[in-house]
User: Fold these one by one.
Assistant:
Number 1:
Amino acid sequence: LLELGCHVIMVFDGRPLPAKKNTNEERRQRRFDNVKAGELLLSEGKINEALGKFKRATSITSDIVESTISYFRNHAKVDVIVSPYESDAQLTFLVKEGFADIVITEDSDLIVFGCEKIAFKWNCESGDCMIYEKSQLPQCFSGTMRTQFDFTKFRRICILSGCDYLQLLPRIPSYLNMPKLRVTKEFIDDFIRAENTFIYQVVFDPRQRCQRPLTKYLCCQKDSYLENNENDFASDEQFLSKDYSYAGEVISSKLAVRLALGNQVWNTLKIQLSDMFTCFDNRSIHIELLKVESV
């Protein structure tokens, strides 16, 4: 991409998302189990089988992320953002707000987040890929789903088909056509939280140097996300985000910038990454984030 003259924005996951706590714990347990199984197979001389287990136990450490960020920050045409929580929401926001033209990923969750344009299965040598465009999504269906396409209904179908934010009832996808299906109030509440996580997950706005929800909170009466008080302490969104804490909470602008740059917000003992992030807003005005030394 750089050889072709493209400007690349690399986006990394940030803090663990509360709504994904159960999923993360399950994955952590699976990695642990795979390590134990791999060690057992290795002791039995079954090297190939052991390697397969060890591969399933692979995880990306913070040191790997930090070294990657430090390396690519030296490239003139590469920007790096660490999202407040999950990169899916952040990538969706960057395309939605015109910071990026397209997302290259293998994660189909971006479709459910409402990302406008995605490149799947991209081959870096040939350039071949599968392009997804949200505007063309209705063409993938037939009948009423095509002629009266409703993205909200589509998102809910995807959630019920299985997502990281909802613990599904056993075999519920096969029950979706059952008109007399009854579920508990607890499941309905969990479903609402899962959907809200796709809608209101907290992201970082590099133009305004603050965190905000991917979609404006329904109860927010302001026309702008920028109206922090003179002490840069807390906006209305920061307070309102507590109602959607499972989708992430908005923190102060100073902390938000430090996190977006790749610094560990609550660890001031580590070397702090200086602010080299630059971008263009929709009016093509060049802006730079202020360097944040400490809080």
Number 2:
Amino acid sequence: MEVFITARRITLFVDNINALELKDSNNEVKGPNINAPKSAIEGFLRKYQKNEEDLLVRKVNNEDFYFIKRESCSFNIREFLKNQLEEMLKNFSWLKSMRWGEGKERWVRPIKNILCILNDEIIPVSFAGITASNTTYGHRFLSSGTALTVKAPKDYFELLEKNSVILQMDKRKQFILDQINKFTKEQNLQLEKNDYLLNELTGLIEWPIVLFGEVNQEKSFGLPKEVILSIVNTQQKYLALSNGKRISHFVTVVNVNNGEVVKGHERILEARLADAQFLISQDKKENLDYYVKKLGSILFHASLGSVGEKVKRITALSKYIAIFIPHASLIKVERAAYLAKADLATSIVREFPELQGVMVDIMLLFSRR
């Protein structure tokens, strides 16, 4: 069994289902020990609607147990799959779900189509007002948009790929990496590794179109690498390329490319970099002690006070721990603890929260220049 996921479809593929009808091969059911209480034996008989004369005795591990014979049962695999899949769809758990139309069913997004086939036969699974068929659809923008008939499960993957959908996530990911590796080799650059973002981008796209843009060096001049990476990776969801010293290019993965897409992304990135330049220039006008004092106005927890009060607790605890560490400087420990949360009051961290803890070091470097 394999599961494939894209931004627009979930596929469950089960291979080698050979039996179209399942039969129960064991027609004897084990019951209680022959020395069990009478109530247990009567309950066993009631469960299977049998009488005492139907009881058989069999040895299991040198002990005697009651058994009964039951009629062999069978069920159709198509009906079984239909019922199981409908139940699965109804009870599928999402962190967030929604209703749409007039139905009461919930799903992560509105369901447009259900395809369900066993060999060449449709299993009429029904959910949210949609009954399964043997048709599916290709890429939202790059295919014709007409329904595609899947004659057999083995044809499904090839049919989708011909219509601009790569179903396998690993294959999409490798496709993206191949394009990046080719570009970095030509430009003598290297990819700033970010596996989490790469996986996220891979999951959002059914047919990756990999585009490369330039980072405006004038807008990014003087910005610490950590800040640029925060904007590129976290804010804009781009992968970053560097020449070893500075971020010079970015990678974005899109569904369509009309020739203006890269320019649009470059303009947005320039604006974000300009914002960061301005915020840091404002923050540099004050020293870190100024920002520590402002922590008193930032709430940490309703029952625990402000961040400023938290810093006092951290400072006291750090000094106490330092007593037991040989050669530790209490003055340096106290100063480090005192400044640890200072960047929470800066404009740059308020705009880019993921930089908290990083900007303290950067601000210290600025103050020493």
